[in-house]
Amino acid sequence: MTGLTAELVVDGRQPRTPALAPNGRLLCYVLAPVSRTGDHLDTELWLVDTDGAAASRRATADVATESRPRWSADSGILYFLSDRADRGTAQVHRLTVDDGTATAVTTWRAGIVDHVPLADPDLVALLAEDEPTEQDTRRAQDRDDAIVVGEREPRARVRLLDLRTGQVTTPDVFGDRHVVELRQRPDGGPLAVLSQASSDNDYGPRTGELHLLDPTTGATVDLGAVGADAHSLAWWPDDDGWHLGYVALTPPLLQAGTAVFDLAVDSGVLRNRTSGLPMCPTELHQTDTAPLVVFADGLNTTLARLDPAGPTTLSQHPGRLDDLTTTPTGERIAVLTGTRYQHANVHVGPPTGPLRRITDTRPELDGIALGIQQPLAYRAADDLDLDGLLVLPVGKSAPDGPFPLVTIAHGGPYDRYADDFQLFWHPSAQWLAAAGYAVFLPNPRGGQGHGHQFALSVAGRVGQEEWTDILTGIDLLVAEGIADPDRLGIAGGSHGGFLAAWAVGQTDRFRAALVGAGVVDWGMLAATGENGQFEAALGGSTGWDGIGPHPHDAVSPISFARHVRTPVLILHGAEDTNVPLGQAVYFHRALRRFGVEHEFVVYPREGHAIQERNHQVDFLRRTRAWFDRWLRGS
């Protein structure tokens, strides 16, 4: 067996965004590296026959960032985005399948954000920001570029590309709203258009509206407001006419999980079609008839059809199904999915299953020794059903315990651990299992996969029941002789980083902690993070609610910093706008003030996710070294 190294983890390539041709015979996917080595993430387009008759073949040869493959209705042309001509500025390209030639069909100076080939073979709908004016260029050259918030903010607008002339026109529609998604009706009718008041992540996603646009006449219809973070537009016909659906957060609170909303276009009646279900929709996908819905279902995934009476289960799958794509009839699908011991690859088949793997993008991991992974089911202190994963040290089984145990809390909190391959550039179970650790991956309340009430329960109560859910799981593993109570570690990134920072302020049980891009002050995050309104819902208040103390003070790790005795490793990206670096600085200064052993590492040029290869390698090595130092004395 080959040993697992940090280089093996980050030097691989992974498939993204598969796109099935309408005839179902060919599939295109993006092949992307796990890490970036230069200024750009160079990606490639690959084609594969879905019948398995031939191996994958590269569709393009240029060094570029290529993305968003989309097929023409006759399956003869593949449209995609590429910045091959001007790195960092994507243009729409057209690849003819028969001869393999690819040519650019736009030269929009601001670049193209997204594109949708229409039923009319001569038209492509585009999303693109306004091209810079001469005045903009002159200001940039003269560095007369003061940013006035609210002025000249970038907004993507609907534009139409006529392939016969190459001309791009911009319909005068939707005022100054920022357009985020388009979907044409299956019969070639109007475009459904999802817009926001602005591209500001804190403000825009809560201001969504739905419109119709006739691409031929330019006529529009406003359909009203949509739920926060709406996405996954899908049309379908019913007895009362056309329906238009989307996935959005369940009102009235922002931290209440997602639901599928169904708008009857003619009557204007809007319904929540997944209310009361013990699982959470992640994708809604259009077909010529009833749409397909992907549900996070505990540790696994359910694929369903949205019938008039409600979702009808078609198949159930271990782990995750991501990036669903289908033929227009919905009779064949492709998804990204994997196993407990293999990274996600493209799989195809009928929606009722079984699915067959047609790519193998990480063969270099086939000989790696891995730890045994098993699902956990247990009850919380208040008798709520919970789940999670346990990964044992490589070469060990449960009777060999007790082991040093690292608990890794997931982000979100509206996210989950699924029963799939747990090896990533950030702290992950198989990476630590290879170094002799048992790893607990809990799914506490507030996460995805157990319905609306489960997700809602964490709003304004972060660090409360969700934390005792995690402790209950740790206690169970100690009682079963798997975890050594004297060698416990805690780690996490983003909301998981919050939980790690929270843990060390509440108990001295842990001998080491890792806080990656973690939240330590909810009021500060609501004021400075890019998702401020969402963070305010989690923390329960903001600093401008009046003279404190505020509810968020009682659930912020910084308030308990004087109680920390556990050594803490803090890792953070310098350019993080989701959880700004100030959160890490605040925690570092508090720990320094109270004489707590800790290490503070900042990664230049990095945002919320670490992308540069050397930084990912450092992240992995530093993670192991920290827990080795405090849990194993090495």
From TrEMBL:
One Pfam family named in its UniProt record: PD40
Keywords, comma-separated and alphabetical: Hydrolase, Protease, Serine protease
Keyword Transmembrane helix assigned: no
InterPro entries: 6-blade_b-propeller_TolB-like, AB_hydrolase_fold, Peptidase_S9_cat, WD40
Domain Peptidase S9 prolyl oligopeptidase catalytic: start-end pairs: 429-632
Transmembrane segments: none
Superkingdom of the organism of origin: Bacteria
Gene3D superfamilies per UniProt: alpha/beta hydrolase, TolB, C-terminal domain
Record's keyword annotation contains Ribonucleoprotein: no
Protein name: S9 family peptidase
